[in-house]
Write a structure and sequence with these properties.
- By secondary structure, this protein is α/β, with parallel strands linked by helices.
- Helix content is 29%, strand content 15%.
- It has helices at residues 2-17, 25-44, 165-170, 191-200, 217-227, 255-273, 283-290, 308-311, 344-351, 357-360; strands at 50-52, 59-61, 134-135, 152-156, 175-182, 186-187, 204-210, 238-240, 278-281, 299-302, 319-327, 335-340.
């Protein structure tokens, strides 16, 4: 049997694997197995979702065989590799990335979940400092000026660099909203540093998310939750909705679809953090999409040239961003300045959970 089997293996080797006289049957069978595995891997290779220009970095979506409709983006599911909202002009002042996140070009790497904060709310009163900010471009807001409001604060992102939070606090920053995330895969590189240092300095702080209109709302909510700790002492999370002139999104949602996507995102955050999210917006986006809607949500309004009552008639608000050109010790360069609507007592009660935002804003 042995003398007959060996020639048969040798012949099979020569025919199937094209082996030379120097290749023994075992090596031939190994080569054949490797070739079969390579063919299987090649056949199973996925078709890329985008075409990337290696010279310019430009991204061109590959036509989808299913022809998925853009309006489906309000629901959960896979999203196109796009960002923002295509609009004629940028009017709001929240800093946005000036280049596409690298994570859009490759599957995101798994990262550790953020460390959760203590599960109990602080019972101490929050000390309020008088503001000592200045403004590179001061505005006359008329009879009711920002200085007439008792509680001032800031919003920050990576663009403020390394902040001296203790000094900024002493200048009147009683609260800070800190940039956390964009879309579904971008984390502000200074977020965790600012998040910790702001609290260590005694500020009340919250996190905000810059919403991408060409990204699935549920994915954005999960990305925010993945990166922002759940802290009972934190201010409510913020969804930043505005137009962005640098958008790569090539279609424009209807107001109804824009509000639908917002609702999906806000519902998920409220479920996770136990606090109703605050809506940050700017005049043009508000006029086109939000006027008369979300009456049961707190608003943070950007209005740097006139009092909010003139720019957003009839809209109650909790925060007013009155300057994008603020100056303060503790920060190099300009910083956004904000005020809280109510009195010091309102502030103390609101951050302690003893007073609803509706009562602060005069809705109850």
């Amino acid at each position: 049997m042995r003398s007959k089997v060996f020639p048969s293996l040798l012949i099979g080797c020569l025919v199937l694997s094209g082996c030379s006289a120097r290749t023994n049957p075992v090596e031939a069978l190994q080569l054949r197995s490797q070739a079969t595995q390579q063919q299987a891997q090649t056949a199973a290779a996925p078709t890329p979702a985008v075409a990337v220009d290696e010279q310019t970095g430009a991204i061109t979506p590959v036509a989808s065989p299913t022809g998925a409709h853009a309006q489906a983006l309000a629901w959960a599911g896979r999203s196109p590799n796009q960002a923002h909202f295509d609009t004629p002009e940028m009017t709001a002042g929240m800093p946005v990335p000036n280049q596409r996140p690298l994570a859009m070009l490759a599957p995101p790497m798994p990262s550790a979940l953020p460390q959760q904060e203590p599960a109990t709310r602080s019972t101490g009163r929050h000390r309020v400092y008088n503001q000592r900010f200045s403004d590179a471009k001061p505005i006359n807001f008329g009879k009711v000026k920002p200085k007439h409001h008792a509680v001032h604060g800031v919003d920050v992102s990576r663009w403020q660099g390394n902040i001296d939070w203790q000094t900024l606090r002493s200048q009147g920053a009683n609260f800070a909203y800190i940039k956390a995330t964009d879309g579904g895969d971008h984390l502000d590189p200074m977020f965790h540093t600012n998040w910790k240092r702001a609290k260590d300095a005694g500020l009340k702080r919250g996190a905000y998310h810059f919403f991408y209109w060409c990204r699935v709302a549920s994915e954005q909510a999960e990305w925010f939750i993945r990166n922002v700790p759940r802290d009972p002492d934190a201010l409510p999370p913020v969804i930043d909705v505005e137009y962005n002139g640098e958008s790569s999104c090539r279609f424009r949602l209807s107001p109804e679809k824009a509000r639908e996507k917002m609702q999906v995102f806000m519902d998920r955050l409220e479920q996770h953090y136990g606090k109703r999210p605050v809506i940050y917006t700017a005049p043009d986006f508000y006029k086109d999409n939000l006027r008369g809607h979300f009456l049961d949500y707190p608003f943070w309004l950007r209005s740097v040239a006139a009092h909010p009552s003139k720019v957003y008639p009839g809209r109650k608000w909790v925060f007013w961003q009155y300057s994008g050109s603020g100056l303060s010790q503790g920060v190099n360069g300009k910083i956004d300045l904000n005020v809280f609507y109510g009195s010091v007592s309102d502030w103390q009660n609101w951050v302690a959970g003893k007073k609803s935002w509706e009562r602060v804003a005069g809705l109850r």
